[in-house]
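Appendix C. Worked example: TolR-type transport protein
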Amino acid sequence: MSRRPLVLNLIPLIDFFLLLALFALLLARWPEALPQRALSVDLPRAEGRQGSGGVLLELDREGRLALNGKPVALKDLAQALSPLLQEGTAVRLEADREVPHGTVVAVLEAVRRAGGEKVEVGVRP
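Step 2, the predicted output written as structure tokens:
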């Protein structure tokens, strides 16, 4: 009886351990690749200064508008604002953070129609 020599093929075993090492490396980097951490942004807080605008527009979260402290309707804003604007007079718009974007755009459009060239925008918490 002749004995057959034992042949040990190590190539599949090396391939298996290389795949395990690659899998371990990918798992170690997994928390950094999550979208929650990748999109986490800490915005800087700015120190604002009081604007030099001569005309003050206030817009609250319910959409109520006030011109220099007096209530005014959005449709009447351009007409009420035009006599207050002189050459170079700035308009300061202070709006609550929860005001819908469309309302702010409508107010800015009314300021433009009234002849406002410079608008300062402030956001209240």
